[in-house]
């Protein structure tokens, strides 16, 4: 029986003190048992938001969260297993491209993914736009598929890291989400419980991302890399831009189609470049001496992706869902596209039904947007900026004002900004 109590633990953090590992373990355990009520846990979360946590405290919290549920045992899969995680963005289908490319090079990629919430897309929703595909894979089937094909992308078991689910729900309603130690422990507890040996993180910043700028994204990257390494997982983070949407498509089926094109080396150069960068990092961590660009050129990456879809019940030959209404929105003046507001585009796709306002909302797999005039493009008045894919003309009309404001045109030529801004590993930032 512990002689600790919630008031003592809360006040220590409130006053800027450092917790012992026993205090963190006790607090999390007591909260999950119902012995510490929401209002006391919320007070502690706010104290963490204001006072922060040391690296040791954050690692202790992360490991306690991992121990709160099941941990996936991947030891039956030969070789170094590499996971990949993105902090979320608009048009971010990098997992659908980089992971199959890495798998085609010989990397074992066991990937547990999430669903769309708010304006950022979810990998599981994108995959489920393929007719017949399931993301609910029993562990034995998941392990068998990774062993045979090199890759599986599935939903996380509800029995993994239940502490994160409980804490995140409380953070969401108490304004305690934006804390680097809490964000880092939330992400990394799920990655560590997923069982891979190594992890590549894609940490996004900008208008369409959670982190507002490069310094905050770098700080989060460093924290997550340290947590991964502290838990015995080799971890690398890339800091990438999300001021403009990534690629040309936003929406579930539309992004699968774009991924299939990118795997054949066709389409948006920036999307292909960042996907190859992520895939190369995955190969390095797996100690695989092959270039994913070769897997793209040969078609092996695309073939691996299609094999994965089919193994999970997907019938790509049946065709993906198509929106009944497709309306192009035109530029009102001449100019060069200086920027496209990723948040505005993400919110427009959300209104079309491509994402969820609430967890229980149904997603329209065919809804979304296809960009015709990307950053750097020259347009004349009347040229299409974007094509809206919607289930009704009324919905398309509803998002029109927001979308037209998202495109900023200028008179001078524009260079596309760099997409990958920094790389963080255990040795530091480059």
User: What profile does the largest beta sheet have?
Assistant: 5 strands, mixed
CATH class of the largest domain, anyone? Alpha Beta
Quick one: how many beta strands?
A: 14
Structural class: alpha+beta
In the CATH hierarchy, what is the superfamily of the largest domain?
Nucleoside phosphorylase/phosphoribosyltransferase catalytic domain
Query: The CATH topology of the largest domain, please?
Result: Pyrimidine Nucleoside Phosphorylase, Chain A, domain 2
Average pLDDT rating: 94
**Mind telling me which CATH architecture of the largest domain this is?**
3-Layer(aba) Sandwich
How far do the termini sit from each other?
48 Å
Secondary structure tally, helices? 16
Which band does the percent of strand residues land in?
15-25%
Helical percent range? 40-55%
Describe the structure.
The strands form four sheets. Strands 1-4-5-13-14 form a five-stranded mixed beta sheet, sandwiched between helices. Strands 6-9-11-7 form a four-stranded antiparallel beta sheet. Helix 10 (214-230) links the parallel strand 4 (198-205) and strand 5. It has 430 residues and is an alpha+beta fold. The protein folds into three domains: 6-52, Transferase, Pyrimidine Nucleoside Phosphorylase, Chain A, domain 3 (Up-down Bundle); 82-317 and 420-429, Pyrimidine Nucleoside Phosphorylase, Chain A, domain 2 (3-Layer(aba) Sandwich), CATH 3.40.1030.10; 325-410, Pyrimidine nucleoside phosphorylase-like, C-terminal domain (Aldehyde Oxidoreductase, domain 3), CATH 3.90.1170.30. The protein is built from 16 helices and 14 strands. The protein has helices spanning 6-14, 21-33, 38-51, 55-67, 94-104, 123-127, 139-149, 162-172, 180-193, 214-230, 252-263, 269-285, 292-298, 300-311, 342-352, 393-406; strands spanning 82-86, 109-113, 151-155, 198-205, 234-241, 249-250, 325-330, 335-340, 368-371, 378-379, 384-390, 407-410, 420-425, 428-429. Helix 2 (21-33) packs parallel to helix 4 (55-67), helix 4 crosses helix 9 and helix 9 (180-193) packs across helix 10.
């Amino acid at each position: 029986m512990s002689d600790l109590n919630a008031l003592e633990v809360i006040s220590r953090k409130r006053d800027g003190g450092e917790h012992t590992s026993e205090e963190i373990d006790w607090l999390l355990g007591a909260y999950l048992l119902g012995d510490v009520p929401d209002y006391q846990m919320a007070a502690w979360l706010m104290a963490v938001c204001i006072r922060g946590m040391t690296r040791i405290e954050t690692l202790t919290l992360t490991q306690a969260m991992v121990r709160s549920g099941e941990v996936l045992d991947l030891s039956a899969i030969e070789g170094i297993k590499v996971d990949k995680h993105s902090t979320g963005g608009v048009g971010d289908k990098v997992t659908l491209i980089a992971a199959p490319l890495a798998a085609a090079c010989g990397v074992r990629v066991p990937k547990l993914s999430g669903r769309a919430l708010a304006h950022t897309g979810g990998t599981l929703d994108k995959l489920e736009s393929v007719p017949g595909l399931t993301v609910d894979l029993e562990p034995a089937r998941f392990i068998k598929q990774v062993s045979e094909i090199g890759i599986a992308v599935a939903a996380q078991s509800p029995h993994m890291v239940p502490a994160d689910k409980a804490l995140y729900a409380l953070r969401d309603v108490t304004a305690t989400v934006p804390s680097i130690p809490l964000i880092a422990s939330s992400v990394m507890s799920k990655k560590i419980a997923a069982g891979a040996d190594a992890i590549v993180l894609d940490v996004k910043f900008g208008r369409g991302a959670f982190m507002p700028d490069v310094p905050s994204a770098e700080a989060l990257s460093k924290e997550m890399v340290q947590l991964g390494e502290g838990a015995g997982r080799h971890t690398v983070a890339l800091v990438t831009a999300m001021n403009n949407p990534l690629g040309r498509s936003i929406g579930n089926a539309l992004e699968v189609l774009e991924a299939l094109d990118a795997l054949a080396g066709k389409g948006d150069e920036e999307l292909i470049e960042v996907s190859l960068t992520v895939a190369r990092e995955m190969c390095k961590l797996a100690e695989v001496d092959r270039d994913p660009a070769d897997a793209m050129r040969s078609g092996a990456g695309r073939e691996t992706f299609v094999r994965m879809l089919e193994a999970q019940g997907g019938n790509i030959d049946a065709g993906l869902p198509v929106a009944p209404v497709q309306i192009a929105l035109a530029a009102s003046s001449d100019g060069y596209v200086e920027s496209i507001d990723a948040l505005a585009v993400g919110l427009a796709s959300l209104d079309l039904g491509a994402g969820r306002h609430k967890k229980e909302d149904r997603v329209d797999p065919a809804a979304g947007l296809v960009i015709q005039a990307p950053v750097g493009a020259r347009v004349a008045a009347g040229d299409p900026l974007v094509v809206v894919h919607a289930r009704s003309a009324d919905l398309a009309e509803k998002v029109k004002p927001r979308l037209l404001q998202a495109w900023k045109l200028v008179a001078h030529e524009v260079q596309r900004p760099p997409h990958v801004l920094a790389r963080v590993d255990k040795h530091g930032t480059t």
